[in-house]
Amino acid sequence: MKPIILFDGDCNFCDASVQFIIRNDPKGIFQFASLQSDIGQQLLKERNASTDIDSMVLIEGDKVFYKSAAALRISKHLKGLWKLAYILKIVPAPIRNAVYDFVARNRYKWFGHKESCMLPPPEVRARFLS
Fold first, then answer.
1. How many domains does the chain have?
2. Which PANTHER family match (predicted)?
């Protein structure tokens, strides 16, 4: 099973992040689903994870990663220098997550809400779970 990224489908910043990951994941390693979707909620329940999450989530098999841990694990698989971001894993999780939480708390104010969902091109559409 490919790693699955769950994201806030209402958030412009989150949508931009998904687009960034798609552009920098030419091997198509990741699949995607909205946290708000039925499949997103089902995936969380199957792993006994909270369904009331306000964070990017990475599911790798039975393991669930949240916040900065998810972002860093994702970066490890991206092309180019983005792989190097994984070195930030040496920063203690409470510090990394404090920065993550600050951005997450302000993402709607800074980047706004989505009025409609993105319709990915056919070659990318298969990577979105429904």
1. 1
2. DUF393 DOMAIN-CONTAINING PROTEIN, THIOL-DISULFIDE OXIDOREDUCTASE DCC
